[in-house]
Amino acid sequence: MGSCWSKKNAKGSPSRNSHVRGTLRKSDLVQYDPKILILGGGVAGLACAVELKNNGLNNVRIVEMSDRIGGRIKTMKFADNYIDLGAQWVYGKDNNLVYEMADVDELGKTNGTIANMDWIRSNGKKITEGVVDQMLDLITTVYDNMKDDKIDPTITFGDYLSKMFDREVEKQNIRIDRSLAKEFIVTFKKMEGNMADTDMSAFDYWSFQPCGGSGLLNWRDKGFKQFLHHLVNGDDLNEHGVLKGCIDLNRRVRQVEWDRPDGSVLVSCEKEKYSADHVVITFSLGVLKHSSTLFQPSLPDSHCKAINSMGFGNVCKIFVEFQEKFWPDDWRGFNALWRAQDLPAQPWLKDIYGFHVYDHQPRVLLGWACGVHVEAIETIKHSALVDGIVRMLNHFLRNFNVSRPNNVIISKWSTDPAHRGSYSYPSVLATENDTGPKSLAQPIHVQVAETREPSDTSISSTSETPPITARPVLFFAGEATSSNHYSTVHGAVESGIREADRIISFYRSSTY
User: Fold this and answer.
1) How confident is the model over 220-226, as a mean pLDDT?
2) Phi-psi region for residue 13, left (φ > 0), alpha (ψ -120 to 50) or beta?
3) What three-state secondary structure class fits 316?
4) d(C-alpha 455, C-alpha 414), whole Å
5) What are the pLDDT digits (tens) for 98-129?
6) pLDDT one-digit tens code per residue, 9-57
7) Exposed, middle or buried: residue 340 (CB in 10 Å: 0-12, 13-18, 19+)?
8) CB neighbour list of residue 73: distance below 8 Å, 6 or more residues apart
9) Are residues 72 and 413 in contact, defined by beta-carbon separation less than 8 angstroms?
């Protein structure tokens, strides 16, 4: 695959292969060996690096803030097998790069769906299957009609869903307890995302394009880290695969200085500096939102508007291990419907919308939390968290003999400085400002003076001002830059390859 760039040349000045402004010649386009720095070791950054090296651009280095690669893929040993604190499923088969890279026998179909789980009210009463099916059919009708509806760009997805659900109840003359219907919608909206009622856009909801085929495929008992092995051609003994020696971990970027006089980009970390010809930024949208002083000079207005306008949400996964399971073999979990009169004293508990059986983990329930209290759940004292979980399980599962768990572990994406959240989504503000992933994904160029070969007789005088052309120096990748596959691993992979191909195309061009 070729070697990565030597860090010996990376301390703040261009390497001997770098071309300062005014010295790059047309004949260098084939010979030129650009230094490419990728910020972030998630799947977008890894996919970008592998694609570049596969096409002969070997002078590549990845800088990652944390002590591991994978980004929002985080697999760890827990209980009897592995769990995924981040990405868990492969969403569909058709035109899905993650599925295409996997071995078919590695993937299994997830058994639990919202349809075959129990829906239980906070008084302990299970909703009958007929009523659940009725409400899910109403939701399906709303979604089907949504594609052709003329939606107000200023309405949130949550408000739209509630309004249309109520309308279908009236239209179809469905006899259903209105309090129950309201509780159902509240829980269902949490499943769609914690920002459904605040700023998730109904107008742009269907900008996401699902991949066809089985919608929820898991990695059996190995976890999503198996995909990382495919991506970099690695394994448990060599997790960096073909990128071994190309990745610097535990490097927190403090500043990205672009539009420098010599044409390079200078990236300053806490204890080290890197100079590069091109920088690919794969930071999460959450990190970009928290990094107002990261870029020097500031990014163009179009990029700032996209970053500030687009949505970035949080979800918390709560893994609960028991000494032995207290539920029957055919039970898949439950979704919680909180009645107004039963709301808990601990407000964060009502944001836990259910506990589900985790595939290939016979003694583990996975709780899902989504809402304004996610950060509180991530930072609460561990003993208080466990007490609350036990209280909630006993409250809803009154026909079960709930035992105290052996172990509880939670994801902490919103408080993790390397991520600052879980996934991007289309927001009302982005719709109003006519911006989104496409705007964020645009490369940023600087003006470069081209120097021709001395034999070029078209230049009559050495003092003649050389032509000025635009050179791309900053590139943006990551799931938030995917216009139709945002919030997914395959969207992140696609974006990394997309930006690698931009760089490759630039150096294959006949003109500079």
Assistant:
1) 95
2) beta
3) strand
4) 59
5) 999 999 899 999 876 777 899 999 999 999 99
6) 444 333 323 332 333 343 343 456 899 999 999 999 999 999 999 999 9
7) exposed
8) 42, 43, 84, 86, 87, 224, 225, 227, 228, 489
9) yes
Q: Beta 333-337 vs 316-321: how paired, if at all?
A: unpaired
In sequence order, what E strands does 235-382 have? 247-248, 253-257, 265-269, 273-276, 278-281, 295-296, 311-313, 316-321, 333-337, 352-357, 364-369
Tally helices (H) and strands (E) across the chain: 14, 22
Structure tokens that stand for 357 in this block: 């059986």
Token output for 403? 């035992």
Which residue's entry shows tokens 């799931």? 479
The rounded Cα 282 to chain-centroid distance in angstroms is: 10
Residue with tokens 């996919």: 47
| H or E element in which residue 38 lies | strand 36-39
Predicted local distance difference test score (pLDDT) of residue 44: 98
- pLDDT confidence bin for 454, thresholds 50/70/90: very low
Identify the helix (H) or strand (E) that includes residue 439: helix 437-440
DSSP single-letter state for residue 292: T
Q: Return the percent helix, strand and coil in the chain, to nearest 5.
A: 30, 20, 50
pTM: 0.91
Tokens 């949400």 belong to which residue?
Answer: 313
- Taking only the tens place, the pLDDT of each residue in 375-420 is 999 999 999 999 999 999 999 999 999 999 999 999 999 999 999 9
Locate tokens 């040349």: which residue? 9
